[in-house]
Amino acid sequence: MKRIAIQHLKKHIGKEVAIAGWVDVRRDHGKLIFLDIRDGTGMVQCVVLPKGKLSNAEKEVVQKLRSEWVVKIGGVVNARPDNMVNSDTLNGDIELEIQSMSILNEAQELPFDKDTELNIDTYLDYMPLTLRSKKGKDIFKVQSEIMRAYRDTLITMDFVEFQAPKLVGNDAEGGANAFKVEYFYDKTAYLATSPQLYKQIMVGVFEKVFTVGNVFRAEKHSTTRHLNEYTSLDAEMGFIESHETVMDVLTKVIRSIVKAVGTACERELSSLKAASALCPTTFPVMKLRDAQTLIFKETGEDSTKEPDLSPAQEKWLCEYSAKEFKSDFIFITHYPASKRPFYTFEDENDAGYTKSFDLLFRGIEVATGGQRVHDYDTLVKKLKERGLNPDNFSFYLQTFQYGMPPHGGWGMGLERLTEKMLGLENIKEATLFPREMNRIDILLSD
Amino acid sequence: MKRIAIQHLKKHIGKEVAIAGWVDVRRDHGKLIFLDIRDGTGMVQCVVLPKGKLSNAEKEVVQKLRSEWVVKIGGVVNARPDNMVNSDTLNGDIELEIQSMSILNEAQELPFDKDTELNIDTYLDYMPLTLRSKKGKDIFKVQSEIMRAYRDTLITMDFVEFQAPKLVGNDAEGGANAFKVEYFYDKTAYLATSPQLYKQIMVGVFEKVFTVGNVFRAEKHSTTRHLNEYTSLDAEMGFIESHETVMDVLTKVIRSIVKAVGTACERELSSLKAASALCPTTFPVMKLRDAQTLIFKETGEDSTKEPDLSPAQEKWLCEYSAKEFKSDFIFITHYPASKRPFYTFEDENDAGYTKSFDLLFRGIEVATGGQRVHDYDTLVKKLKERGLNPDNFSFYLQTFQYGMPPHGGWGMGLERLTEKMLGLENIKEATLFPREMNRIDILLSD
Questions:
Q1: Residues of B in contact with A41 (CB under 8 A)
Q2: What is the ipTM for the molecules in this complex?
């Protein structure tokens, strides 16, 4: 008999079907045994009736079953009596009466219930198991929908996707914080900290481009905010007026993601108790200096001489934005040129400050972007000012020798966006297989 | 005036419009000057009429223009006279009469015409320029469509996308051919040669998963077939009957890609003179030994004792398949266990041979896959047989301790698929910024 996906069982009420999946939970009520069976599409409650059709051999099999055993089941889909209906969950109104049963694979005894709240290190140590929890599945279902919505929205806007290389000879930031790779012939390569230089090259080709891929930061952080490898949702586009064009497009993309996730992952969001993001048509925009002045005025904390915001200040600004502007998102613009990469465009009307932005969301920077320098001579000058050798960027610089329009773009952290959309406490909960200074899958201690 | 995308100009015949883009070619016919202007969406012929509205200053600007200068143009969209219509190209039936003109950025004199046929090293050295050629744009437009169709097809089949980490502690193949990365505290990490282990972990979570990402091979090859970094289109699924289930799904995915590219990239395929792929409902399947016997019989070349096919034999089999089965694709199965990775499933009815396959397409292997071992004890035994230490795979092995169904999947090379769909000569033509032993963007010679 052809296997039915569990999410489609409801179409087969009164019929005999076959399913296959993992035993999520087995509840033995003496005469009745209940099995929650899970496949990739959902979960269903199955029941072994005392006078059911199972052979004695099959009944013995049922007695042996524990969580995570893999089974194939034949049975009849029954509607539940009204007083047993749970309308909040998939298949809460049906039940599968088991008529045959076989084991596809056994599982060892679990070290803990997979849906237990665990401390983060245990959760990470056992990720092949803990990701099977309801929470783990919900988080990464949402993450996959964020990626899908991100790409689809940009494709609709005529952006072309490309794959940026991760092995690079020189990094956009000049090699600081880049992991070193032993290349051939004793050469050193680096892992890209962003696809920035390639995005700009590709603007020369397709005008509007995007790329989704892993980036690498050799930063010795071990916090709830940082990762040494993460997924960057990047885009770059030509013929912009200023960084504001970029912010407008990013706003549309974010709104589209929030809407798509709200529709496709309604059940997951509800299960994770994720509050809907306040996501108005336009997000508030503040210059860094205006933000600092506001903070000084409202809290008495004087950071007006600082080149950046502290984590606490980012949090404060987001709370302010939610309260004052009904927006969980806020753009902070005009960071000082000295704190931004060499390719950042300086504001011709605000010397020393850049047409760049950070996008803050629920207390954290989730995206950074702006307008880039498109003039070759200016770019060479900026490289030299930073002590970088233009010869090492000769490949990239061709883009600007051979005609580039005003352009800009952003990089957005998939894991941070996921974390904040879902109200999680730690970036690692929103990261499949997080890499940090102490961990690559397992802790790196000797 | 709001800028119009060049692909939409036809909707504005008789109207005044603004466009912006690159000068592709400037043709000076004395009284008449023609400019082909290109933006991200297409190209249009523009004309400066002798008695047109341009100011003298603007006329001087037009005189200075060369290829790749970036301009903003105002003008009127005119239908071309019937005898001037070129119906094969976008905008072959219209022309823009230039009425105003400004320069957004200049370009240096080009080292060569960007559409010239170049030797491969020059092409690669100047990629920021040469990718702007018609051929370059066509190839990578098709590649982006392959990615889109790949993902969309799998999402329709209930596969869930995830991002696999590239920094790994231990490689699926045991570290051979993996690049070494200097990690923290003098630890060594590796660059993943495939997302294999993570795909299998994720089958335990979502049952059907896919991932698109870069993989890295530290192989000292410099051929028209090999790359040291490439994009792998991966998928993995649970509850399969055998490797044949995997082959069936992969066949559907390939057919869907071929169809989508044929529709969305009709113009690009035609311009690249790419022949439609012979892509029947089912692809021919041959065991490796049967293929070798056939080759022996037909060509006299005895390779029946070899564990693999030579490149020439793969080519021969593809030509045979096209002729005999009207299929540019052919599956070769049952490679010897000794030549396949530790996780490969051995055929219980054909000892020593595996339920694995290579998919050949127009002379080259574009995908490899099969059924995987799902039993924990067998997997540990196979690791040990290869001299690998199961302790180093403890994270991965949890997947099998805690219940895994029969499962399998594939990895497919995006660049090889692109190359062969488009009939290109060299994998590097189908690769954005190819990495090889002698090159990362530029040649690595001292």
A1: 158, 207
A2: 0.96
Backbone φ and ψ for B370, nearest 5 degrees, come out as 150, -170
A402 and chain B in contact, CB less than 8 A: yes
Chain A residues whose beta carbon lies within 8 Å of the beta carbon of residue B151:
148, 151
Name residue B330's amino acid: I
d(CA A173, CA A180): 14
Which CA distances in Å does B55 have to B30, B63, B65, B77, B428?
17, 13, 16, 19, 47
Instruction: Suggest the residue from B22, B133, B163 to mutate for an interface test with chain A (most A CBs closer than 10 A).
Output: B163
A vs B: CB pairs below 8 A:
281
Query: Tens of pLDDT along chain A (446 residues)?
Result: 889 999 999 999 999 999 999 999 999 888 899 999 999 999 999 999 888 888 888 888 898 999 999 999 999 999 998 888 988 788 999 999 999 999 999 999 999 998 999 999 999 999 999 999 999 999 999 999 999 999 999 999 999 999 999 999 877 666 678 999 999 888 889 999 999 999 999 999 999 999 999 999 998 877 777 899 999 999 999 999 999 999 999 999 999 999 999 999 999 999 999 999 999 999 999 999 999 999 999 999 999 999 999 999 999 999 999 999 999 999 999 999 999 999 999 999 999 999 999 999 999 999 999 999 999 999 999 999 999 899 989 999 999 999 999 999 999 999 999 999 999 999 999 999 999 888 898 877 65
C-alpha span between B390 and A34 (Å, rounded): 36
Give, in degrees to the nearest 5, the angle at Cα B411 between B408 and B417: 140
Sign of CA dihedral B11, B15, B16, B22: positive
Cβ B165–A432 below 8 Å, yes or no?
yes
Query: Which residue, B174, B165, B204, B168, is CA-closest to B390?
Result: B174
Which domains can be identified in chain A, with CATH numbers?
6-105 (2.40.50.140), 122-443 (3.30.930.10)
Q: In what order do the strands lie in the sheet with B439-440?
A: B435-436, B439-440, B442-443
Please answer yes or no on whether B132 and A204 come within 8 Å at the CB atom.
Answer: yes
CB contact under 8 A, A440 and B216: no
**Under an 8 A CB cutoff, do A182 and B185 touch?**
no
Tell me the shortest Cα–Cα distance from B62 to chain A, in angstroms.
16
Q: Is any Cβ of chain A less than 8 angstroms from the Cβ of B42?
A: no
Q: Which residue has the tokens 């995908």?
A: B367
Nearest to A207 by CA among A418, A408, A376, A26: A408
Using an 8 Å CB-CB cutoff, list chain A residues near B64.
none
In angstroms, the CA A144 to CA B158 distance is 12
- Are the beta carbons of B205 and A136 separated by less than 8 Å? yes
